[in-house]
Amino acid sequence: MKPFVENHIIELLRAGDERAVTLLYDHYADALFGVALKVTHDRDLAQDVLQESFVKIWKKGSKYDASKARLFTWLFRVVQNTAIDAVRKRNRKTEKEIQNDSASVLPLEATSFIIEHIGVQQHTETLDEKYRVVIDALFFKGMTQQEASDELDIPLGTVKSRLKIGLRELRKLFGPMIVIYILNFIH
Amino acid sequence: MTQDKVNIFLESDILERYLLDRTTSEENATVDYFLSTSQEVRDTYAELQENLERYAQTYATPPPAELRDRILDSIKGKEQVKRSFPWMAVAASIAAFMFAGLSFMFWSQNEQLWNERQVTNNLIQDLNEDVNSNKYKLAQVESQFLILNKPETSKYVLDGNRRARRFKAVAYVNNLEQKSYVNPVLLPELPDDQVYQMWASVDGKMVPLDILKMSKDQLTEIPYEERMASLQITIEPKGGSKQPTDEDTVANIEF
Fold first, then answer.
1. Within 13 Å of residue B201, how many CA atoms lie on the same side as its CB?
2. Could you tell me if B166 and B242 lie in one domain?
3. For A128-175, how does the pLDDT look when each residue is reduced to its tens digit (9 = 90+)?
4. What residues are paired with B179 via a beta bridge?
5. Based on the structure, what is the number of domains in chain B?
């Protein structure tokens, strides 16, 4: 996201201008829907999550503090927390009916999504599986580090170190992509 | 803010959890403090946010087309939470600031105590080494004392001649244990380029034993020579000689 657009959206949000939501949707809906899907593993629920999240974003927009987090980080947190709450609510409802499935509140199995960013996705897949699993568990499944440690059956210290190293590896992976992006932009 | 503290902070996982909104209010205050004081922490946090966005983009999925209108319709007519004068926010900021200060203070104190503990541990270790060293020395002295007190140990007093009248040393020889010691009671000062050297006469030949050092009341073990007939002290050039300079003899005793 270019800083100019981001700043414009923030200004509109603060001014209570509904065009902010339109711009937010047009620029971030795909990424945020992806987050909701990764957490819920349920397209219908993910749609509800996205709708509820945008209402929250609109309502709390004037309180957004750009000095604490970038716009996407803030949006990500809202969607992730909304999705986690939605999954917990759903699981509580269906606990008796699907006891077997609800044993794991947030299953780790990968699901197939429509990936528009195929190049980016392939790039991410080059990240070592052991790091990806940990980052996914923490970023998209809303697990605490302790929960990820229990779920993945790896020591807490290893979860912490894999998160750190994984993020560092991401930087290496994404570094060249920015160059490609810039070159495409120039041509 | 020392680099060590920044390093310790970055080595922890607080910043990663802060990114994902998984920190306690106490931890938030600590993170805010570091963000406001360290460029390195700010850069790392910015990098983490960029990574999060890029990684999330890799899972981007277009939502159903009708969702856009549904969401935009649901926003219409909904009031934003208006910003009144943020008394609570001001109070919270002051509290957070104080809390951050306190957190940092406690954290610093903790670090300081930890460092002091390390220093104390090192001190205890040094003291233990001193105790062991003293025990070893004491054992040596006891061993020497035992040998000196044995009836078969002979004591020889070496008095200086005209060359060094004040010279006085005591030698102890135990032929049974094959040990010999010398106690240089008084060694008159020599020029820097000269030393006192001790010799033993063995089978008619003079064998160099040791250079005498001025260590008052310090019993020093010297090499034992069987069939020692006499002991001789001479003044020699610094570093000692292979043969004694007879004219520079300061003390001599025959057994």
1. 12
2. yes
3. 888 888 888 888 877 778 888 899 999 888 888 888 888 778 777 766
4. B174
5. 2
